[in-house]
What we know:
This protein is mainly α and about 60 residues long. It has helices at about 1-5, 15-60.
Amino acid sequence: xxxxxxLFLVQPIxxxxxxxxxxxxxxxxxxxxxxxxxxxxxxxxKISRDAIDRALKSQN
Length: 60
């Protein structure tokens, strides 16, 4: 979209800028969701590991 705006294929420059801005925001949100997903996966593994450790200790 930016290239099209620079080549004047899209006449309203504000429209091209707005669509580019929306694309940047969508990309940032996607990267944040991937980060949050991987962060939560580690927390889930830790919780299950702790539960197993408690179960093993209570048996001994």
